[in-house]
Amino acid sequence: MRSERDEQFHRFVVSRRSGLVRTATLLTAGDAHLAEDLVQSVLTKLYVAWPAFQRADNPDGYLRRVMVNALTDERRRWWRRREEAMADVPDLPAAEPVRTGELADGLRAALRQLPPRMRAALVFRYVYDLDVADTADALGCSEGTVKSQTARALERLRVVIGQNPSFAHR
User: 83 falls in which pLDDT band (50, 70, 90)?
Assistant: First the structure.
């Protein structure tokens, strides 16, 4: 038999998990496996802090903050620094022209080159259309830091995209 707390948490997970996975996928630049790990970590942390989450003035902000902190923790793990995710085993380099679906892959690859906090700043500002103050709250930094991180991230993306010939045709 579940407690009332367990029931509340279960309803929360059922209603919000897909959105959490979508956000985690963006924050991890399309790494679906890392996104799933991140969501599980967030849900574990949230379950432990469930009473505090329920008392929060801004539950969505609280959730974004937990997600960014979990991503930062995940990136610090020693075995993650040595791991390189690949969709296919690279037997030979591909010399085929870029296909339509590869544009998204190229953008994800460009996003992967950004540090996690810069990527998070872009995701919160431009994908979720949060204002500077809400993004600063999610990242646990000042509004000036959000502005500078966003500007630097956009500049880095412009450089990476400019160096990638697959974006030149678009």
Answer: low
